[in-house]
Amino acid sequence: MKDLPHKTIERLSQYRRALLLCLDKGKTHIYSHEIAKIQHITAVQVRRDLMLIGYTGTLRKGYNVKELIDLIGHIIDSEEGINVAIVGMGNLGRALINYFAGKRSKLKIVAGFDINPDKIGNIMSGVPCFSLDEMPEVIAARNIKVGIMTVPADFASDTANALVKAGIKGILNYTPKPVNVPKEVYLEEYDMITTLEKVAFYVKMQEEEES
Amino acid sequence: MKDLPHKTIERLSQYRRALLLCLDKGKTHIYSHEIAKIQHITAVQVRRDLMLIGYTGTLRKGYNVKELIDLIGHIIDSEEGINVAIVGMGNLGRALINYFAGKRSKLKIVAGFDINPDKIGNIMSGVPCFSLDEMPEVIAARNIKVGIMTVPADFASDTANALVKAGIKGILNYTPKPVNVPKEVYLEEYDMITTLEKVAFYVKMQEEEES
DNA sequence: GAAATTTTGTTAATATTTTAACATTGTTAA
DNA sequence: TTAACAATGTTAAAATATTAACAAAATTTC
Ligand SMILES: NC(=O)c1ccc[n+]([C@@H]2O[C@H](COP(=O)([O-])OP(=O)(O)OC[C@H]3O[C@@H](n4cnc5c(N)ncnc54)[C@H](O)[C@@H]3O)[C@@H](O)[C@H]2O)c1
Ligand SMILES: NC(=O)c1ccc[n+]([C@@H]2O[C@H](COP(=O)([O-])OP(=O)(O)OC[C@H]3O[C@@H](n4cnc5c(N)ncnc54)[C@H](O)[C@@H]3O)[C@@H](O)[C@H]2O)c1
Q1: Contact, B60 vs B53, CB < 8 A?
Q2: Alpha helices (H) along chain A
């Protein structure tokens, strides 16, 4: 499973989300082309991904929704679950905590950190907010493995360093400023502006094509 | 320029962001390996991307920061700029508006839409909030081309339909529910959970490797 | 002033990802 | 019963994306 393509990992997560919705609707089986339709990809790709994880559907009946959800969970989730911390309890930080609050999942946001004394000590949607000083202890004590960064861009690099020092293993950086971490820390960066600019680019292209 | 690789488009947007920071610091030239370092990619890739857009640096001096920013702008920006609307002025919607407020860019969020009467009529960080009924007129009148969706997941599909009907050309969907749009509308979907699950997966993998 | 160095630009090779092709096999229907 | 169909699973091919290799040229060093 170690060498599943990166893209397949992402899609498995998405398949599961779609499958959970199907389960809620009472669907017990699903065809590859149904999953594909939802995700805007081809049925071949779905079947190929499922082949890679060794799941076999029933010919002419499709895939068993429940089984597949479980299998994907076995592959991408860590058995004991993974605890997550969020640094920067501002607009985006709070929005994310809020968003995750309802979801039952192997991923739990168990701590927040902020520099603002007014926020420290508060509990937001069930997540307690700590001071930066407390970071090393809290991260160790709560067995936190992943950190989400939603601090102002100017503090991006400091925050990344602090997280690394505290022993975090993976970082998701929502700051528009790329950071550097040791290679043993898995880093994912996402900037909303890039995505928006990409959409705008293709819209522009289509317009130019038409004219 | 039409056939630039998708990945190159994304990177150009990111290069520009990095270059703008350099400009602020008073840097006039930059080497490919410096850009690469910031973006966690290789210098070859940077040079190749720049080759694709036909930009030529100065041997041994690197690239002219200002020129490159301008060129990237010419390629990915639309000359007149593109107006953007955001549907769903909740936590995430407001966070996004806030985030964009400061940035000078060819992309402007010029309208928000919500179903909540308490929000309609308000102005948030300079963006006026309209009712859903007003969507067709507002989108036409303000020449809005791109829509960002930050409504509750259950309304994702309705919102996409409404945006398409109102004549939008590109959609960026932050809802965890994939939507369907006609093929002439460019659609990009982003779910934060996918990214977080991916980070968690690689953290898990690394741990298993170590043990 | 020649050699070494550094950096760009480009072509070629490699790696990854997606798509196509098709064999296989239950199921439906004539 | 058998032909047509609709689905999966897999191998092969094509398309995309990244990396390596190296020539060319400006700069520095000896
Ligand atoms: N709001 C968005 O939609 C959005 C989108 C993309 C990216 N971002 C980025 O996410 C980050 C946060 O955005 P926001 O809108 O939530 O900003 P915000 O100002 O609302 O929140 C920032 C929070 O970080 C805290 N903080 C400041 N310095 C800190 C430090 N050194 N350590 C810990 N906490 C610290 C502040 O007290 C505040 O609570 C920014 O870098 C922004 O560019 C935001
Ligand atoms: N908060 C996050 O960090 C986060 C992250 C990823 C995805 N999301 C997704 O983004 C969406 C919004 O999240 P949020 O935290 O901002 O939720 P929210 O409840 O704070 O905001 C939703 C807003 O949409 C409005 N709304 C409801 N129905 C509408 C309709 N039919 N048309 C227009 N507006 C409508 C509500 O009045 C509210 O203002 C959700 O789908 C959520 O799953 C949120």
Answers
A1: no
A2: 6-24, 32-39, 43-52, 65-76, 91-102, 135-141, 156-165, 192-210
Spatial contact of B138 and B130, defined as CB atoms under 8 Å apart: yes
Q: How many CB atoms lie within 10 A of CB A4?
A: 17
Q: Give all domains of chain A, ordered by start, each with its CATH number.
A: 6-75 (1.10.10.10), 82-193 (3.40.50.720)
Distance, CA of B118 to CA of B97 (rounded, Å): 18
Structure tokens at B92: 């995430």
Can you spell out the DSSP letters for B57-122? -BTTTBEEHHHHHHHHHHHHS-TT-EEEEEE--SHHHHHHHHHHHH--SSEEEEEEE-S-TTTTT-
Contact across the interface for A146 and B199, Cβ inside 8 Å: yes
Burial of B57 (0-12, 13-18, 19+ CB in 10 A): middle
Q: Is B186 in the pocket of ligand 1 (CB under 6 A)?
A: no
Point out the residues of chain B with pLDDT beneath 50: none
Of A83, A86, A104, A95, the closest CA to residue A17 belongs to A104
| B62 CB below 7 A from strand C atoms | yes
Q: What pLDDT sits at residue A102? A: 74
Decide: B79 and B95 in contact? Cβ < 8 Å.
no
pTM above 0.90? yes
* Pairwise CA distance, residues B180 & B171, whole Å: 10
Residue A101 has pLDDT above 90, yes or no: no
Beta bridge partners of B127: B124
- Atom number, ligand 2, closest to the C-alpha of residue B90: 21
